[in-house]
Amino acid sequence: MSFLRKTIPMLGALGRQHQHLKTVVGALPTSSRQYSSDPANDYANFPGAKAPFVSQLKLNLPEDYAPIPIYRVMDRDGFIADETQDPQLSREVVEKMFRDMLLLNTMDKILYESQRQGRISFYMTNFGEEASHIGSAAALEMRDLIYGQYREAGVLVWRGFRIDQFIDQCYGNVDDLGRGKQMPVHYGSRELNFVTISSPLSTQMPQAVGAAYAMKMKKGNDACVVCYFGEGAASEGDAHAAFNFAATLGCPVILFCRNNGFAISTPSHEQYKGDGIAGRGPMGYGIATIRVDGTDVFAVYNAMKMAREYVLKENKPVVFEALAYRVSHHSTSDDSTAYRSPEEIEVWNSVDNPISKLKRYMVHKGWFDEAEETAFIKDVRKKVLKQIAVSEKKLKPNWREMFEGVYAEMPEHLVEQRKELEKHLEAHKEHYPLKNFKQ
């Protein structure tokens, strides 16, 4: 009886629904009701997706789709593969690209050794990725806003960040623009429109999209946002949020992935499946996408020019994947020979090295002078070593500054904490190196 009591109302409801459908179908033209005779390729118009209908069931597999091609301009010998793609940059610009790569490379070697000597706490080099920094930076305008991860020092070099600013930040002294509040290599510059780097992966990605949305709202906006991140960061939840908001809100942001093959010690084939990071753009999020050879400074330059023009004209994002190889250890906390062979590293450090590739191009053009290169590297080494000697002797910022710089008016709990620390230091000052801090 209980089953019947539940079933009878249900059958009544189904009957009413059937009668309603008959009424609706009867109101439609005959041609609209002939579903069985419709062609198999007619197009669906669901709110969630627009796609053709098919009458044969098929599982869509990753291998059914061709990988997104990798754009390049130069081959590994420095020759232009297609003359129509030569950016026709002046000798002056190409020489600046080359010098900036050399400066970054030379500074990296010395500061890496500085950490090994115990003079700074941490460092990350940029070996193998110099072209993605310099090529992208050269294609942008100074008014474009940069959100970096932690391996984009070349962007700052191109924009004019000085050797003393790099080294003061690594030493966290009184002249550090970050006031000693960040780890080494966490640079930032309001003057150069480079937002201070954060340690946690991908936190900068939704922030960058938000900044781009704010720019979009400005009348007559002529600037975009470029957000750099690694393929490892693309596995974080913040990356999904950034991609999705950038697409649905239509933001002028270039989401620049430096796919260097390794997320610390995890190789890319263990980090993700599918067609790299570029593969997520068109189908995954509906975002225009470019994939380039990240060891080719001209390919990165041309692609960034196109990406910038697109995001400003269309007010839509671009996913930009620069494929390269992280020649260096992940950081001074890593030994990459534990998970890859020295022979593999050497191939990428010689045959497919970005600096070597550009040098070969300059040789073909008659623009390279070995004596000038040697003199330039020697001069940079001298400046970096001299600055280290100066920076390490500078005082640290006043310790009270650790409580400042977040709120316009310091909240009561921070005021209390500062008072407690003042009392503690006064009582135990002999145990602290207060003379090393600005008073």
TrEMBL record:
Which Pfam families does its entry note? Answer: E1_dh (PF00676)
Q: Mainly localized where?
A: mitochondrion
* Origin: domain of life: Eukaryota
The cofactors named for this UniProt entry are: thiamine diphosphate
Start and end residues of each Dehydrogenase E1 component domain: 100-398
Q: Which CDD domains match?
A: TPP_E1_PDC_ADC_BCADC
**Where does this one sit in the cell?**
Mitochondrion matrix
Q: Reaction catalysed by this chain?
A: N(6)-[(R)-lipoyl]-L-lysyl-[protein] + 3-methyl-2-oxobutanoate + H(+) = N(6)-[(R)-S(8)-2-methylpropanoyldihydrolipoyl]-L-lysyl-[protein] + CO2
- Quote the SUPFAM superfamilies the UniProt record gives: Thiamin diphosphate-binding fold (THDP-binding) (SSF52518)
Q: Which UniProt keywords apply?
A: Metal-binding, Mitochondrion, Oxidoreductase, Potassium, Thiamine pyrophosphate, Transit peptide
The Gene Ontology terms for molecular function here are: branched-chain 2-oxo acid dehydrogenase activity; metal ion binding
Report the record's Gene Ontology biological process terms: branched-chain amino acid catabolic process
Instruction: Spell out the GO cellular component terms annotated for this protein, sorted alphabetically and separated by semicolons.
Output: mitochondrial matrix
Q: What is its EC number?
A: 1.2.4.4
What family is this protein classified in?
Belongs to the BCKDHA family.
Summarizing the function annotation, the protein's role is:
The branched-chain alpha-keto dehydrogenase complex catalyzes the overall conversion of alpha-keto acids to acyl-CoA and CO(2). It contains multiple copies of three enzymatic components: branched-chain alpha-keto acid decarboxylase (E1), lipoamide acyltransferase (E2) and lipoamide dehydrogenase (E3).
Question: How is this protein named in the record?
Answer: 2-oxoisovalerate dehydrogenase subunit alpha
